[in-house]
Every structure is written in C-alpha cells, then in structure tokens.
Amino acid sequence: MGKITINDIIKKKEDGQKITMLTAYDYPFAKIVDEAGIDGILVGDSLAMVVQGLENTLPVTMDEMIYHTKIVSRATENAMVIGDMPFMSYQKSVEDAIWNAGRFIKEGRAQAVKIEGGFEVADRVDAIVKSEIPVMAHIGLTPQAIHRIGGYKVQGKTDESKKILMEQALRLEEAGAFSLVLEAVPAELAEEITSRLYIPTIGIGAGPGCDGQILVLHDVIGLFDRFVPKFVKKYANLKDDALKAVKQYISEVKKGVFPSEKESFK
Ligand code: KIV
Questions:
Q1: How many whole angstroms from 183 Cα to the centroid of ligand 1?
Q2: pTM of the predicted protein model
Q3: If you count Cβ atoms within 10 Å of the first and of the last residue's Cβ in the chain, which end, N or C, has fewer?
Q4: pLDDT, tens digit, 9 for 90 and up, residues 62-85
Q5: What phi-psi label fits residue 138: left (phi over 0), alpha (psi between -120 and 50 degrees) or beta?
C-alpha cells in the first residue's frame, strides 16, 4: 500500500471520504493503530499527560517528542506520522520553528508536523511549509494556551469568537497548512469552517461535520481515566483488563500456581 501522503489526505476530502486519525506514542500501539488501517498517527504532546503522568502538556520537551516520534515511525508502514510541536518549540522565533520542525523530519522520521495557534503562528506555518515540511494547523481549544484560556473550555461560542476562528482557519490555509485540527468548537461552526476550506478539517470535539476525526488513543482504549472529556468515546477498557491480569498473576505466584510444570524446564 505504501505510506499515506498529504495528497491522499487532501484527496479524501475532495472524494467525500472521512479521514481517520489517532495519537500513538510507542511501538506496540503504533503498530496496532497502523495495522487497523488508520490514515494518520499524531505523536501528540498529549503524551505528557497520558504517558508521562503530567498535569498538562506544557512540560514535554523537544527531545522527548523526538524520542517518541522515532519509535512510532519505526512501527508504522502505512499511516502518515505527524509530530506535534511542543510548547516553546516554535513560539520564540520563526527560526526556532523551522529548526524544530526539521528535527521531527530528520530525527523523528515524521512526514509532517502539527502546530497549535491562529494568526500568531501563521508566519511559522508559512516558513515551515517553505522549508518543504507539511504542517497541520490546530485552532479552537489549544491546550498549550491553557493558562491564557483558563481551563479546557469549548471555544467559538460567541459571535465574535466564531468570526475569529473562521478568519484564523482561512489564514492558516493561506499560509500553506495541509489540514486543520478543530478542537472543542461547536459542531455547527466546525461544519461551516469545513465547507469554507479547501484543506480538510480534523475534528476533536467538533462534531460530525468535519472531514475527519482524531482522538487520543489512551482515551479510546480506556488506558487513561484521570478525566474523560465529553467528546471521547471509549471503545475498550484496557486498564481494567490489565489490572485483572496483573492481580491474577500476583495471586497465582503467591499460591504457587504459577509457574506450573507447563512453564518449567525439565
Ligand atoms: O496532543 C494531542 O494529542 C493533540 C490532539 C489533537 C489529539 O493535539
């Protein structure tokens, strides 16, 4: 089949086919997600919360993101791998943004990067794209702006903020983004933005009118239960299964049931 490219992603919108994306952060899960036939894997900075156990996404570093992106790329045969630019890897300067985006491609073996923000990052998107690196933009609820926003809140509820989100979407498309993540925005607004853009929108808490959907894998498979946002649908309960398995192992070792003859050498 070969690797999915940005052309395939854009063509899916043109053909009216839904685009599927999930996050992954390590080899075994990236392999499962890829084997299942996903279009894109985002090595999200959400790994700070669901893998590193941190309170928010702000502390994760470039080196840590590269480490996980390398592993995910190694596991992936078909899906497009997108590296998520962490907090302070692009805010300071356009030069920083180009350099760090380049690290995701050169060291992480990703095919694209994602960058959070609206008008203020349009020049970064433009410069990264001009350096031959495809960029996925991300507006609405942008978790790196958590302290400004004051919580994980739905964005674009007032007429003024709706107008700003629409203008940001158009500006980021103009800057050269190949797709746009819309996070936690009203479904009607997401549908309107989707219909105005040539590039595909990928929704997370943005309703069914987007061209594609993305979720955090650990939410989808029930591995992260510190909090579950309203927009998440859990398709499995791996934490419960793992807990059951580990408890049974402990009990069998204590009782002398494991190892049995079957697991022993003669
Ligand atoms: O970091 C992340 O996982 C994201 C999402 C869009 C899922 O940014």
A1: 9
A2: 0.97
A3: C
A4: 999 999 999 999 999 999 999 999
A5: beta
pLDDT at 228 over 90: no
pLDDT > 90? residue 1: no
DSSP bridge pairs for 247: none
Atom of ligand 1 nearest to the CA of 45: 1
| 173, 183, 191, 192: the active-site residue | 183
Q: Which of 21, 82, 114 for a ligand 1 pocket mutation test, highest count of atoms within 8 Å of Cβ?
A: 114
Q: Are 241 and 229 part of one and the same domain?
A: no
Q: Which pLDDT tens digit goes with each residue over 238-260? A: 999 999 999 999 999 999 999 99
Q: What's 84's domain CATH number?
A: 3.20.20.60
- Cβ 133 vs Cβ 82: under 8 Å: no
Atom of ligand 1 at shortest distance to CA of 143?
A: 8
Q: Are residues 231 and 242 in the same domain?
A: no
Ligand 1 centroid vs 199 CA: distance in angstroms?
A: 19
